[in-house]
Amino acid sequence: MHLLENIKEAFRSINSNLLRTILTALIVSIGIMALVGILTAIDTMKYKLNSTFASLGANSFEMRAKGYNNGRRRQGVTEKTYPAITYLQAQQYKRQIGDEATVGLSAQITGAAEVKANGQKTNPNTQVVAGDENYLQIQSYNLSFGRSFSQTELDNGANVAIIGSELKDKLFPNESPLGKYIYLLGRRFLVVGQLEKSGSDLGGGGADRLVLVPLETGNQLPRQRALTFNVKTAVTQASTLAYVTGQATGIMRAVRHDPLGQEDSFEVDSSDSLTGKLDSMTSTLRSGGFLVGFITLLGASIALMNIMMVSVTERTREIGIRKALGATALQIRQQFLIEAIVICVLGGILGIVLGVAMGNSIALLIPGGGTFFVPWLWMILGLVICVTVGLASGYYPASKASRLDPIESLRYE
User: Fold this and answer.
1) Distances from the Cα of 379 to the Cαs of 3, 38, 40, 272, 374, in angstroms?
2) 211 touches 163 (CB < 8 A)
3) CA separation for the pair 402, 330 (Å, rounded)
4) Burial 364-374, CB ≥16 within 10 A → b, else e
5) For 261-286, how does the pLDDT look when each residue is reduced to its tens digit (9 = 90+)?
6) N or C terminus: which one in the chain shows less Cβ crowding within 10 Å?
7) At a CB cut-off of 8 Å and minimum separation 6, what does 369 contact?
8) What burial letters (b/e) apply to 90-121, b meaning 16+ CB within 10 Å?
9) Is 397 within 8 Å of 339 (Cβ atoms)?
10) What is the rounded CA–CA span in Å between residue 408 and residue 309?
11) In 3D, which of 390, 215, 396 has the Cα closest to residue 297?
C-alpha cells in the first residue's frame, strides 16, 4: 500500500472503532490541554501585567537636571549642580523626539495650595500642577466627568482646571463641579473636568488631591522661584524602551548644549526594572508549566501505547491477511504509525482549543480587561508534540505488528 492508502486505511480503522478512538483522543487532548492551557494562562497574565506596569510607568522614563534640587555630598564630595530644564528646552526636546514616543511636560506649581469654592475651602495641602495635552495620558489619569483642555486653552493659558475626586467631595459634595469656579493662588479657575478616584496613599494624595491647569497658565501663576519642568517620555512597547532612551539622551544633550566628552547635565530615571522582574518570574512559571504539561503528556503517551498494543492484538488476523496479499513489513509499520499519529492529532486539536479557552479563563481572574490571547507559538508546539507522541507511542506496536508471521496470524482467533 502507498502512503495515501495507509492514511485512508487509518481513518477506516478509526471509524470502525469510534468509541475507542474517542477515548484515546481524549487522553491526548487532556495532556495537550494542560500544556497549552498553562502556557497560555502565563502568557495572558504576562500581557495584562505588562499593560498594568506600563500604566504605572514601567514603559517610561523621566528626565531632570542633575543635582538641581540640592548639592548632595557623597563621601565628602559635593555633587555638581546643573541648571534646571527650561520651558524652551523641554519644548524643543518634545518636538525633536517625533513619533518615536509620547512626551508629557509638566511643572509642579506648589504642593501646599488652599482651594476655595462654594463657601468651602480645603486644607493647604493641595497639589497644583501645570501640564500639557499629554499629561493625563502619560500619567495614566482618567477623567470621571468632563473633558480635557482644548488646544486653544493650552495655547492661550486659559484659567481652566481639572480637579481630583477629593477636592470635588470637599468643595462640591452634592453637585457636579463642572462649570463651577474654584479660587487658588489669587486666581479664579473654571472646572472643566474631574479625575477618577485613584485611592493613592502616596505623599500628595495622588490624583485625588490634585488641581491640573494648562502648562502655559502655570507659567503665569505667582511662584517663589523659576519652575522646574518635568519631562516624561513613554513608549508603547517595553522592547523599544532602551532604544528610545538612548535616542532621547542624545536629543536632550543637544538641546542643553552639553559639550562633547562632558557628562550629561541631566539624569534619566527609568522604571523598566519592573518588566525585567516580570520576565524573570514568567520564565520560571513557564518552565514549571511546561514540566507539568510534559508529565501529563507522558502519561497520555503511555496510555496510547497500551491501546495501540491492544489494537495490534485484536487485528492480528487482519495483519496476516494483508501480509498474505503482499503487504510488506514497512507498509504494516506505516499503517499503525499513521493511525497513532492521526489519533494524536485529532486529540491534540481538541486539546489546543480547550487549552486556549482554559488559559484565557484563568487569566480573567487577573484584573485588567478581557483581552483574548491566542498563543500561536504554543498551538504550533502542541501540534508538533502530538505528532511526536504519536510516533513515540505507535512505533513499538507498529514494529510488533510488522514482525508478525503471516501464517501464525491467519490462524489467530
Assistant:
1) 26, 12, 9, 30, 9
2) yes
3) 7
4) beeebeeeebe
5) 888 888 887 765 556 666 677 777 77
6) C
7) 48, 51
8) bbbbbebbeeebbbbbbbbbbeebebebeeee
9) no
10) 18
11) 390
